[in-house]
Amino acid sequence: MQAIAPPQAAMITANQWALVTNQSSSIQAMMQNDNETGTSTKPPKLNHINDWGWWKERLRTYVQGQGQDLWMCFFTAFDNDLEVAGSNPQTYSTMSDEDKKKFKLEKKAFMILTQALHRDIYHQFVYCTTTKSLWDMLTLRCEGNAQSRKIKQELLKKEFEGFTCMENETLAELSTRFHHLLSEMFAFRVTATPQEMVKRFTDSLPSKWSSFLEILKENGVLDTITVYELIQKLENKDVEEKLKAKRTLTPQNPEMYYGIAGGISGEKPASQHAKLQSAFISNIRPSTTNQFDPSAYTMYSRPDSSSQQQYVQPTPTAQQFTQPPFLDPSRAQ
Q1: Is the pLDDT of residue 33 over 70?
Q2: Residues 6+ apart with CB under 8 A from 243
Q3: Distances (CA, A) of 109 to 34, 64, 117, 127
């Protein structure tokens, strides 16, 4: 009986499936990135109202790259008569070249704007039929009116003034959050001087940066750099500290620089003080005379003594401590 070959899918190994899965994830991430940032042939897409700030700037860059005349259509009302004439094939042929150019620019700008909106967002403004009307409604919806913009500006100012490091937040995370805050402030026209940005970011850093910031302050660096240059210096310092922490401990050999011949590791430097070679013990015994008694002293010398001179300090006997005459009864008159 001939064996039946397994299905082709069963012959795929686990590594091959893993490779296919990784490639699929990479392709999805690439497509999502192109969808958000846009390409040379596709505008960036507004997927959520909260992304309006950065998306508006990306769209402006894209449209101006296609032509400045297209960008002007976002702020110039389109003539309704041209809309009617251009929409009718019979009247379109009778239009002047200048009117045809305006009509084409309007339609191209409207196409770019509608393609850049997510389906759910565009569905809310489907009644807008011109580029300017759709752009104005988007701006009003995302940025609000003058009162709501003022409230947003006040909130951003308070957030900037109270900006500080959160618990367990790294330097990279802190700087990224600060950049997002500055971008949002720029979108709502909340201004801050370069010195204010530097001051606010330095105040937000944890205490471990105090010594480094004090050095920059004493050298006058903080008065001349921007917040972006400051963050770069901090990141460089952070990398140096991380590399230093990972450095392997090297065995040290102090004998090499203590002036010891050979510098052999493990040998201790020779003592520069003379060793004690002799010890003296005083043998105090009573004496009946006041004469010098050599037997009152006993000296023990170490066998390995190399000293040529021996110093003996006499110890007075009991008789040498005589009483004063006025206390000696034998001398009383």
Answers
A1: no
A2: none
A3: 20, 11, 13, 17
Buried b (16+ CB within 10 A) or exposed e, 81-118: ebeebbeeeeeeeebeeebeebbebbbbbbebbeebbe
138 and 30 assigned to the same domain: yes
> Is 328 domain-assigned?
no
Rounded to an integer, the average pLDDT of 154-180 is 95
The amino acid that residue 171 corresponds to is: L
Same-domain pairing of 130 and 178: no
How many domains are there within the chain? 2
278: its two tokens: 């002799």
DSSP string, 77-93: PPPHHHHHHHHSHHHHT
Q: Please say if the pLDDT value at position 297 is more than 50.
A: no
In a domain, 36, yes or no: yes
Please give the model's pTM, rounded to 2 decimal places.
0.56
Q: Do 131 and 171 sit in the same domain of this protein?
A: no
Look at residue 19 and give its three-state secondary structure.
helix
35-53 pLDDT tens trace: 666 677 889 999 998 888 8
